[in-house]
Design goal:
CATH class of the largest domain: Mainly Alpha
Oligomer: single chain
Strand content: under 5%
Protein name: Pyruvate dehydrogenase complex repressor
Pfam families: FCD, GntR
Largest sheet: 2 strands, antiparallel
Number of strands: 2
Strand order of the largest sheet: 1-2
CATH topology of the largest domain: Four Helix Bundle (Hemerythrin (Met), subunit A)
Keywords: DNA-binding, Repressor, Transcription, Transcription regulation
InterPro entries: GntR_C (IPR011711), TF_FadR/GntR_C (IPR008920), Tscrpt_reg_HTH_GntR (IPR000524), WH-like_DNA-bd_sf (IPR036388), WH_DNA-bd_sf (IPR036390)
Structural class: mainly alpha
GO molecular function: DNA binding; DNA-binding transcription factor activity
CATH superfamily of the largest domain: GntR ligand-binding domain-like
Distance between the termini: 72 Å
Number of domains: 2
Shape: elongated
Length: about 270
């Protein structure tokens, strides 16, 4: 029987493993700058040359990038499965939006379920902050810029994914993040010009979902998450049908009116 020698583990290997773990679990997020070399070496209790070697290896893998002016950052493209051109295609196709909502319903129901089971005190505090920020957006009648509301909505759902402690769900939801911020699927308030009934429904749905997670009611959390997406499906379907009927009516009345209405649509 031949027994080979066990190669000693290099310190840089351990540093690489730790940094990869931090990226994978979301402690280090896409676009985030790593702490200064001296600070990070002190936290890990390692030498700076060993840290430099580990950082270089992660850069070679495409997990870290260097920027002008110094510093290393987690790659912003990490896990981004939806590029800007694809976002534009999805936004302009109601059938694709419907498919996206079906996908979200499956993902987010599971995220909510596991978040209710696994959320730590820190997770709940983070989720509470995201929830209160979103509710403040719904309560505001002054701002006409709804992009902030879309971002707050996406951050709330991302906080739920983080609290699920399932790294596959987390990175899948994070890959959708830019899509959720810009797509009308999330920003329902914008489609209805802040119609009070719609906003009231969304406020209540998020409250029920938030409370179920905070209180550890996993089955309720899954139900409310699915109900929330189902409501979005209904709203979008209704709007699409209303738009289609209006276009038909305009075409019947006069070709000029239809062209004017088409030109007035947001890009």
């Amino acid at each position: 029987m031949s027994i080979g020698r066990i190669a000693p583990r290099r310190l840089a290997d351990s540093i690489v493993e730790e940094l990869e773990k931090m990226i994978l679990e979301g402690t280090l997020q896409p676009g985030e700058r790593l702490p200064a070399e001296r600070t990070l070496a002190g936290r890990f209790g390692v030498s700076r040359p060993s840290l430099r070697e580990a950082v270089q290896r992660l850069a070679t893998k495409g997990l870290l990038v260097s920027r002008q002016g110094g510093g290393h950052y987690v790659s912003e493209s990490l896990g981004s499965s939806f590029t800007d051109p694809l976002i534009t295609l999805l936004e302009n196709r109601p059938d694709a939006q419907k498919d996206l909502l079906e996908y979200r319903r499956t993902l987010e129901a599971d995220c909510a379920y596991y978040a209710a089971l696994r959320a730590t005190a820190l997770d709940k505090a983070h989720l509470k902050t995201a929830y209160e920020t979103l509710q403040a957006c719904y309560a505001s009648e002054a701002s006409s810029d709804l992009s902030e509301e879309g971002s707050a909505d996406a951050r709330f759902h991302l906080a739920i994914a983080e609290a699920s402690h399932n790294i596959i769900l987390l990175h899948t939801i994070r890959g959708l993040f830019s899509l959720l911020k810009t797509n009308v699927v999330t920003n329902i308030g914008g489609m209805y010009a802040r119609e009070k009934r719609t906003r009231s429904e969304l406020t209540e749905q998020h409250r029920l979902l938030f409370e179920a997670i905070i209180e550890g009611r996993a089955d309720d959390a899954r139900f409310f998450a699915g109900q929330h997406i189902q409501y979005a499906q209904h709203v979008l379907s209704e709007k699409h049908e209303n738009d289609r009927r209006m276009e038909t009516s305009l075409r019947r009345s006069s070709p000029g009116a239809a062209a004017e209405a088409e030109a007035g649509k947001p890009a």
